[in-house]
């Protein structure tokens, strides 16, 4: 007791103790204010990620409410999450202290669930879909390079087009947007060369391959390659697979003089990854001679610049030849020969726009929430 009295009687020690007490009191007041203010405040992008995290928690407890069929979508409102006491009122969570409304849209894509936060905070912030960014009036053209409106949606045409896209650190070119908002893309990855098919061909009496992409429930080698790539979780994690929708692919064979035709004799449904068709290669060309001379279709055509690639289309007049993009042109090659390939895929209409203008220097970027955290 005497020791404490001596310390207190010491002016220097007394001031130090009082200063420490005041410091501790200030810290306690700050903690109390933070607690009373409702906890962490989020930027809008952080709040979008928070909504996904909480939606995933919600559906973990209500799995029966998830969409059960491919392409089915269900909507979870922000108000439901508030009522469920998973989040506070948005005015208490956003850094700008604004009121927001919206939902988390959940889509079943081939068994993988895409969670898309649709946040509307008035003039402060609104979640933006890539499809809406692409089809803005100022982006539509009627001549020259650019995005054209068609009866089926929109397509990019020309060789100098701003249709570059980055998604999951992979570069793509956007080919078009259909009337439902689904976005067709082709990747630009330079891969190792593979055979289109090397099965034994009885007509040729050698392993020159068979140019059936899929027949009698049997895959060509190139279809096996695409399916193996899709199943590779290191390249395409389950969260990324959720962004791709299934689609119908034209696998009908074509004669040389019919490759610019709109006719498709055979389609394969429920496909995720595929290849360009022979017809796909011609569509972006702006050369007026393309309709009458296939060779002219390589002009003013961004697809002629993507490098060598197999197409999905076999030759109708043989059993072993397949169309391939080679040297910027479309040529027939033996199925057993080697070439690289480019994936054609379709992105869900609800993918979010993060930034970019589609140019090579500033490509469009898709907003992803692969590691959504609380």
Strand % is: 25-35%
Order of helices and strands: HHHEHEEHEEEEEEEEHHEEHEEEEEEE
Structural class: alpha+beta
Separation of the first and last Cα atoms: 51 Å
Total count of strands: 20
Sum up the overall morphology in one term. Answer: elongated
> Averaging pLDDT over every residue, what do you get?
91
Query: What would you report as the Rg, rounded to the nearest angstrom?
Result: 29 Å
Provide a concise account of the structure shown.
Helices cover 22% and strands 26% of the residues. By secondary structure, the protein is an alpha+beta fold.
Layout of strands and helices, then pairs:
Elements: H1 2-9, H2 11-36, H3 44-61, E1 73-77, H4 78-83, E2 101-109, E3 112-120, H5 130-134, E4 146-150, E5 153-157, E6 164-167, E7 170-178, E8 183-187, E9 194-195, E10 214-215, E11 218-219, H6 221-230, H7 238-241, E12 247-250, E13 267-271, H8 278-282, E14 309-314, E15 321-326, E16 329-334, E17 338-339, E18 344-347, E19 352-355, E20 364-367
Parallel strand pairs: 6-20
Antiparallel strand pairs: 1-2, 2-3, 4-5, 5-7, 6-7, 7-8, 8-18, 9-17, 10-11, 12-13, 14-15, 15-16, 19-20
Would you write up a description of this structure?
By secondary structure, this protein is of the alpha+beta class. It has eight helices and 20 strands. The protein has helices spanning 2-9, 11-36, 44-61, 78-83, 130-134, 221-230, 238-241, 278-282, and strands at 73-77, 101-109, 112-120, 146-150, 153-157, 164-167, 170-178, 183-187, 194-195, 214-215, 218-219, 247-250, 267-271, 309-314, 321-326, 329-334, 338-339, 344-347, 352-355, 364-367. Strands 4, 5, 6, 7, 8, 18, 19 and 20 form an eight-stranded mixed β-sheet that branches. A three-stranded antiparallel β-sheet has the order 1-2-3. Strand 6 (164-167) and strand 7 form a beta hairpin. It is elongated. The two termini are 51 Å apart.
